[in-house]
Amino acid sequence: MDNQTDRYIRQRRLPEIGDAGQDKLAQARVLIVGCGALGSVQAELMARAGVGQIRIVDRDVADIGNLHRQFLLDEDDVTARLPKAQAAARRLRRINSQISVEAIVQDVRPGNVEDLVKDVDLVLDGTDNFETRYVLNDACVKHARPWVYGGVIGTTGQVFPIRPGGPCLRCLFPEPPDPGSVPTCDRAGVLNTASATIAALQATWAVKLLTGADGLGDTNASPLQVVDPWHGESRTIVRTRNPNCPCCARRQFQFLAETRTSWCSVLCGRNTVQVTPASPVALDLHRLAAELKALGQVTANPFLIEFAFGGYELTIFADGRVLVAGTTDAAKARDLVSRFIGV
């Protein structure tokens, strides 16, 4: 193929990739979990880099609040109420017709995550909640699949490559934070250049891992990169594997059991879904109500918060249980709880 017809010629000229690396990308299969601020950028970069097969999984539908930071989506997708995965896949196929793009509209849960993970070469984290990340971590460690964790709140984000035999997410964060204890993007905001920066770093790690050019050497250690583009700050912290980690060391895949994740039940005749955390928590209702007031209508008492937003009403109890009125879709209810409370 000559220089005029090879879309990857400038990538091939990189000594870090070359012809051999480009061929590996063409044969690679990548799973992107979540197609929001992180996943949409990851997906576009993977498609433009020539990754041969891309699988996108997302549970949500495009809305106007996505457009300031979520690449691949536009106003037509919002008007049509397209699922994010389908809208992204349609756009990616126009960007690169030489690759295969699969869109799956699902909520990634213990019951389906292993089927999504086990036949790919690498997983990119585009999720917006810790619960899904711990499920993903268990599945990737169990099936020896590398994955790249990333997260952004406000102007700061972090990236951590996770390789078979190396430190996993539970080496970094042994347990997920309690619901309500960590700010969410909806409550704290997010800078679009911060999410794009983190997604680009995740995609860089994906290319390095897929081509075998990660340069990490010792699998017992991996770098945690923390970046704040607004303040021009970045630092790297080397994290080592915990020899007593319940996941990667003892191979106890607790988050693949439904008992470690929240569960949903549709309340008969009420157009309402109840989302219950894996274990009771003690929410700070006073603080949470103060933060939610900037986002919608809030009424509160010492026992619960009622929060109205976009045609939905969330009744939030101190033990972390939430009634989501206005839908019978469990995935939508879980997404709303993740956005406004954090799980």
What's this, in brief?
The protein is an alpha/beta fold and 343 residues long.
Name the shape in a single word.
Answer: globular
CATH homologous superfamily classification of the largest domain: NAD(P)-binding Rossmann-like Domain
Tally the helices.
12
Q: In terms of per-residue confidence, which ranges show pLDDT below 50 for 5 or more consecutive residues?
A: none
What does this structure look like?
Helices cover 32% and strands 24% of the residues. Helix 3 crosses helix 10. It has two domains: 248 residues, NAD(P)-binding Rossmann-like Domain (Rossmann fold, 3-Layer(aba) Sandwich); 79 residues, TATA-Binding Protein, CATH 3.30.310.10. It has twelve helices and 14 strands. The mean pLDDT is 90. The relative contact order is 0.13. With 343 residues, it is an alpha/beta fold. The radius of gyration is 20 Å and the shape is globular. An eight-stranded mixed beta sheet has the order 3-2-1-4-5-6-7-8, with helices on both faces. It has a six-stranded antiparallel beta sheet with strand order 9-10-14-13-12-11, covered by helices on one side. Strand 5 and strand 6 form a beta hairpin.
